[in-house]
Structure formats: C-alpha cells, structure tokens
Amino acid sequence: MFFAVGGGFFEFDGERWHKIMTKSSTGRSLAQDVEGRIWAGTNEDFGYLEPDAKGALRYVPLAVPAEVSQMTTVWQVLPTTQGVFFRTYETLFRWDGKRMHYWRSEARFEALSEVRGKLYTSQGGVGLQEIVGDELRPVPGSEAYAKSVKLFWHPWTEGRVLVSARDQGLTIWDGQRVTPFATEADDYLKKNLPYVPTLLRDGSLCVTTLRGGAVVLDGQGRRRHLIEQGLPELNTLFALADREGALWLGTGKGIARAEIQSPVTIVGNAGAQGAWSHQGKIWVTGVSGGSPFGRVVRDPATGVSKLEPLATKAAQAWDIRSFQEQLLVSTGLGVQVLKGTQLVPAVPGLEAPRESTNGIVFSLRNPNRLFVSHSRACPLCVGTAASGSTRGACPVWGRRSPVLRKTIPERSGLRRARARSGSRCRRPAAWVKPPSLAWARLRDCRAMGSSRRRAGAARSI
Known about the structure:
The chain is mainly β. It has two domains: 2-258, Methylamine Dehydrogenase, Chain H, CATH 2.130.10; 274-460, YVTN repeat-like/Quinoprotein amine dehydrogenase (Methylamine Dehydrogenase, Chain H). The protein has one helix and 42 strands.
C-alpha cells in the first residue's frame, strides 16, 4: 500500500515501511492507473513512481510547461483513458504520455472526477464543467455548484451522479438539475464538514470529515457505521478500502484500519459477567463500571450495536437465565426478574445485601427446576415449578415462596453452584464450591424439595 503523508510518500508491505524520497517534504495525492503505475502529487510538483536498478521504487517528477511560473499544491491525481490529470487550485494539467496540456482558472479549480467515462471539473464562480478534449464546457444545472468547494462526483443509481461538497453536504445531479440527498448522517456531516467521499465495493459510500471521523452510508442514505473510536484524531482526510473490505483511514496524526466487514462487534469495553438471549434480545450482566444490567441495541448514531444500561438498584449482577418465559438475574440484592425494561425483586420485599446470589443453573433432570447459589445461610437454593393455580408464577426463592424452597441446611459457607452431568454417578448431582479448595457433591437432587432428608445434604469429597 502507498500513502501520501506529511513526510512524503511511504510504501507499506504489511510488515515494513519504506520511504520514497522526493524533492518536496509533503506528499499530497496518489492514484493508480489500469496498468498499475502509481502517479503522485506533492506541494510543488507531480510525477510517478518507478523501480530503480535495484528494484526499489523512486519518484520521477514530470516537467511543467515554462509558462507556468509557479507550482502549488497538487491536491488531486486522476488517471483516465484520456491521460493523467493533476489538479492544483490555479491550474489543471493533463499528461497524455507525450504532451502536457493545461487550463488556468481565474478563481479556483475545486473538483476533478470521472463518472461513466465523462470527466468533470468545477470552478469557483462558474460551477460544474465537462472536460471535452481541450475544452471546458458548462453543463445543465452547473450554477448550483458555482460557490461550492471541495467537490467529488460518484456514479449513483438510475444514471444519476452523487455529488459531495464541503458546504452543501450530499446532492444528486441527474444531468439537468440538482436535488438534496437526505441521509441519517446529515446533522453529523453539517457539524463536522464532509471532506472526501469514497465509493465502496458493495455500493455504499464512506465520507470522511474534517472535524470528526468517517461515516458509511448505504444507497438509501441509512447510516451503517460511524467510525471515530480508535482513530489517532478526529480529523479524517482520506479513506481507502483494501482487498479484504477493510477501510484504511488517514488523519492528521496517523493511519488506522477499520474492519467494517468483520462479523465481530465490540459492544462495550466494560467486562461482562453473563449474557443471555431472551425474547429476541441479548441481555448482559456485569460487576463493574456503570449499570450492572443492560441489553444490546442498535445505535442509530453509529449503525452498530451498543450496550444500553437498564434500571436496577443492585450494584452487581452475575448470572442470567430465562425460566418459564421470564428473565431471572442473580444480583448483589438477590434474584431479580425483568419487568418491562427494569429489574425488580423476584419475591416482593425480598431485596437486600444479605440475599446476594451468584450462579443460576438448570437441573439436568428436571427442566422445571433451577439451582441458585446463595451467599449466606442457605448456600444452595432449588427452584421447581408450582402446580395448579400457581403454575407460571415467578420461580424464585423465599421462605414462604410457593414455587422455590430452601432445602439445604447451613454448611460451612458454600457460595457458588455449578451443575453438571453426573456421568460417573448413577444419579444426577450438583457440584458446589465452598470457600476452601475442596469441592462438595450434592447427592440425589431428586429428593430435594419440601423434605430436609439427609440425601439432600452436602457431602465433602
């Protein structure tokens, strides 16, 4: 890959950087033609890259006509079938391989683009013009861009052209007139000033901004991505898609690569303790930083998923499970249940630090039974579905709860439960971890319930 930066031109092979020496200290523009040659512009000349005797690329400047007394920054390079064009504000050059032709502007050349084989430029006070041979011809609707700066054209749907301008945002030119192209990013672009748009392989458009990051829009103007996080600074000057579909973004302080095609989305930077899919949504618990409970939603501002915090009095949330069409969460205040978009005590009035719970696991033998680890006297709580009129009631524990009963006598402060298959045992079992390094096995889980038989007690192993 090749980059034009403040220090000149650089080549990157995926591991190492190689600087290509030039007379100027600043590289401004780069473009590749159909034969693979790299054309370049600097602050004071323009030319191309070619290998030297050792195979290393070197910069070869092109001669400028003598009547062009002073060269200024070459903002844009555009290889075409008619030749290679170089744009400065004052002069537009065309090199056809043998002869250098140029046009002078009394104002400024603000644009240079090729759309469906036609070449366009724009001048301040004049507007849009088509380059035909050695002529600059006005086109219908050109006056709409007479005062616009930093214009770019891209082919769009139904034979139309999408035009970006720093002071106008995005517009559509149909060959006769200009109409606004409304997008979900209009406010962002107006605030941060669009700079360079890049048409991506899938038909979407990436627009960089002078005061912000880069916005990726689909063909209907919907925002797919807003890329700001991870950029060296919020001053994004160019974008380029590589073969893998990733975007390379250049800023005033460095280069970043955004994998916009990645199937992985970073929802948040805070650690998550648990996650569960319930009623078509992903719900997440955590133990540090902000709200301990939330759901994954699409952020309309960025087009990617984010974690939306939801209301709960608990400062910590641990395990999370769906049980009989309800979402249960073990928290530092006890088991809570989702009501709408907030967590409430699963048993009204049973909410306190002394009711803190941790793990929630399903019974492998009885799908209507849960195991919940508790922090105090009853280290392991067992839930079972109620019968009759109470079926479907909230399956939570409590000394008088009709659907979940505490069944295990107090034993040495057992804290967290992990249910697993008793593949080496004749009967299913639950394994629990006390504060010591030893593990304990709860035998004959089928016997747990209203009875407090010895078969339900913990046995050290």
